[in-house]
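Ticket #4471: structure output looks truncated?

Reporter: J.K.
Steps to reproduce: submitted the chain below (102 residues) through the standard prediction queue, then opened the result file.
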Amino acid sequence: MRHLIQFGDFYRLKSPFSSNQAAWNFVSKDQKEVLVMNFNIMSQAQPVFTQTKLYGLNPDLDYRDENTGQIYGGNELMEVGYYDSVMKQDFAAEVKYFVAVD
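Returned output as attached by the reporter:
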């Protein structure tokens, strides 16, 4: 993932100063790879469902989540996003990796 973090475009999606979460994504220059990092700062007794909307993708491409195999449209990930996993620990993190489908 070094090539995405070092040479990709960086976007902060959620600020830890305005919510209990932080998130950012890195997009390759050709917009075919996306690395997303979500962080939950403090756990909650009754967590609410949250969504993460990505930024900088190609809206005309489809992207496959390499962990689950689920396919999303680029415009879907930017406009609607995906539901975050419910994290039951303080300072928990989740990493997602999307690759464009040909």
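Triage note (M.O.): checked the attachment and the full token line is present. The chain has a mean pLDDT of 94.
Status: closed, working as intended.
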